[in-house]
Amino acid sequence: MASLLAQLESLSQAAARDIAAASDEKALEELRVRFLGKKGELSAVLRGMGALAAEERPKVGEVANRVRDQVESLLDGARERLAGARLEAELAGPPIDVTLAGRRPLPRGHRHPLTRAAEEIAAIFARLGYEVASGPEIELDWYNFEALNIPADHPARDMQDTFYVEEAALGGAHRSGSVLLRTHTSPVQIRAMKRLGKPPVRIICPGRVYRSDYDQTHSPMFHQVEGLCVDEHITFADLKGTLAAFARAYFGPGTRTRFRPSYFPFVEPGAEVDVSCSICGGSGRKDGKRCGTCKETGWLEVLGSGMVHPRVLENGGIDPSRYTGFAFGMGVERMAMLKYGIDDLRLFFENDLRFLRQF
Ligand code: DAH
User: Fold this and answer.
1) pLDDT score of 107
2) Fewest C-beta in 10 Å: which of 70, 131, 142, 352?
3) Which distant-in-sequence residues (6+ apart) come within 8 Å of 189 by Cβ?
4) Is 224 or 61 the better-scoring residue by pLDDT?
């Protein structure tokens, strides 16, 4: 026992001496390992306790604990001392002139054209009082289809279009076929109505959507922006005025809009919205030639819209006898292609810098 206590005493003195002399944090770490580490000196002493008589162990254990605490606090103190000294040295050293120009300026990057288009669209609606909302990309069938009044036999539900999440991946939490990658941003309409509880609801939701499709104008992952406005006395005139104002803000002040009747299960009535061609100004001709962007029609189809179906309001927890609303949805890739005159959607996803640098 006496020899173990003597070892502890000399360990304690060596630690105090060496820690006081340590000149940097790396040296302190080495000392910590040497004295307190798993294979360090203190551990070696503790291993020697096995040979002691049972009544001697508590005494040695108590001293060992005290030595460990002491070494730890010496290490803490030394760390603080070194950090303080480093700060002092920095302050005393030559000042850094933050106003000097950098010697090798890094080339500045910029946002992807799709990010830019989505942000621009959302910003226009933000100026009209819309709040940016979001929802999950892995969505329940109920939000993506059912609550939006899309019947079970609707072609959009086909395996060919919709990516379903396999039952095995769901850990038994859901039936297979009930979880999918959202095919549009419209489910956010229901989520937003339920979240806000009661009108007014004015949300805009940019986000990723998924469909099993791939060609010059389709990608399995693409982006949409959804909009929803619900309140008392909302009419089709509000829908027209809002989307016409949006088209002028996004495509330019002279842009005209036209509404064509169309069918979407979650609106009634529904309309597709065209804008005058942003490339040829609506004339159908560009530089004496046929305008390829609008195929000489002078019009571009840009979004779907309509008055929110009463059943959809109900599914969002809103009383359709008191409130009305309008909704709209547009493809971000298409909005960017039309604005910048890009003819192949796949360019957005190839990440070729020669393409991206043009924006
Ligand atoms: N969700 C539709 C689609 O992906 C687009 C759409 C049409 C959204 C009409 C709407 C709407 O909100 O009112 O094709």
Assistant:
1) 78
2) 352
3) 148, 203, 226, 228, 266, 308, 312, 316, 327
4) 224
CA nearest ligand 1 atom 4, residue: 184
Instruction: Report the separation in Å between the CA atom of 279 and the middle of ligand 1, taken as the mean of its atom positions.
Output: 25
- The CB of 265 under 6 Å from ligand 1? The reply is no
Q: How far is the C-alpha of 228 from the C-alpha of 309, rounded, in Å?
A: 12
What is residue 247's predicted lDDT score, i.e. its pLDDT?
97
Rounded Cα distance, 206 and 135, in Å: 10
Question: What DSSP line would sit under 346-359, residue for residue?
Answer: THHHH--HHHHTT-
From 148, 186, 273, 305, mutation site for ligand 1 pocket: most ligand atoms within 8 A of C-beta:
186
Distance from residue 105's CA to the centre of ligand 1 (Å): 45
Angle at 206 (CA atoms; ends 323, 358), nearest 5 degrees: 145
For residue 157, report the distance from its CA to the centre of ligand 1, in Å: 15
Average pLDDT, the chain: 91
In this prediction, residues 98-119 reach a mean pLDDT of 86
pLDDT in tens, 245-271: 999 999 999 999 999 999 999 999 999
149 Cβ below 6 A of ligand 1: no
Instruction: Tell me 170's DSSP state.
Output: G
Global pTM reads 0.70
Q: Note the pLDDT of residue 42.
A: 85
The C-alpha angle with vertex 60 and arms to 59 and 61, in degrees rounded to 5, equals 90
Alpha carbon separation from 197 to 47, 191, 225, 232, 236 (Å, rounded): 66, 10, 22, 14, 23
The model's pLDDT over 281-320, given as tens digits with 9 standing for 90+, comes to 999 999 999 998 899 999 999 999 999 999 999 999 999 9
Strands (E), 28-140: 131-132, 138-140
The reply to whether ligand 1 has any atom less than 6 angstroms from the CB of 186 is: yes
